[in-house]
User: What shape does this take?
Amino acid sequence: MKLIGPFKQIVTLSNLPLRGKLSDDQLEIIVDGGLLIEDGKIEISDSFQNLKNQFPNIEIENIEGEQICLPAFVDSHTHICFGGNRANDFAMRNAGKSYLEIAESGGGIWSSVQHTRAASEEELLKTILERINFLISLGITTIEVKSGYGLDVENELKMLRVIKKAQTFTKATLVPTCLSAHLKPRDFQGSSEEYLQYILEEILPKVKEENLAKRVDIFIEKSAFLPEESKSFLLKAKEMGFETTVHADQFTSGSSRIAVEVGAKSADHLEATIDEEINFLAKSNTVATALPGASLGLGEKFTPARKILDAGGILAIASDWNPGSAPMGNLITQASILATFEKLSTAEVLAGITFRSAYAVNLEDRGTLEKGKKADFVTFKTDNFQNVFYHQGSLKAAAVYIEGEKQIL
Assistant: This one.
């Protein structure tokens, strides 16, 4: 057991609801606080002096200078296992080229598929670990990672094996998700429905056999998979024992309803979601995940986060870090910008990147600093937690702790 502190402020995020809007005056803030850690979990969050008096012989890890402490962040939607680079896509898009024109010139998702297929497991492992370490440096200690740039048995399994191997090299928690249903690959001889059947018969049984992922995702969109075939696919994946999540309502509305109907853990993107779908989603236990990085990368409108919260929905915020539409990877910057455009309170942003995002990946043992929760937290050299989002990502984490142990950044 050890005591870490004193912190100028500890924002515990305890006793906050899972769903709906939040105001900053609902936040529990412990001034001059300390964290008592035992076996990698929070035992007590309280005044540092009170804890010193209560446990006079305890090991103390002193915090120097003024620092604030927040629960570590959860990035519940990333594509950080990939090969290649799509900077040319970004340049062409900004120059006015359409999605179709970029794809026809050799860009788009298919470009990433070709680069990822060509990359060795060693190359993919090296680059994913670099991206994981960058995310840890931001204070993110739980990271969902999707496949989806392999799109055949050999290469989807290669990606998922790399993600599994990466877990052995990092203290961060990786949450692998099989996104073989990203789009129908150009070299597949058959219909979209036949490709989805191929995933169910050839890929998912091997994923299950090797314990490579417990989650399955699908991109429901005109350019990918249609709602009815997607719903059938998701229900069959659930029958196989997989949790489900959905890329929904990115360019056209309606697919978030599919996510709710199949009981998906989350519906992610939602930039095109309309009021009727927002209300349907808000009444469910499916998390609405905003991906502001994609809005910034594509020049599209943001997820209607304010409406989702006001309707009583569960809002998470994730980076969507990928080589095409969301290459930034900086969740703090993205969440800060989303807050500005959608008028989100600091409490709503913090909840969206901590315990609400943790719920989206079915990890409810983290995201708040209260008894029994995983001792993952991040500190910043400032006297006011509001400065983290005020500086929109330019205020860097001073220290990141995983299970109560300080990480080398």
Notes: The chain has 16 helices and 16 strands. The first helix runs from residue 48 to 54. The radius of gyration is 21 Å. The CA atoms of residues 171 and 402 lie 7 Å apart.
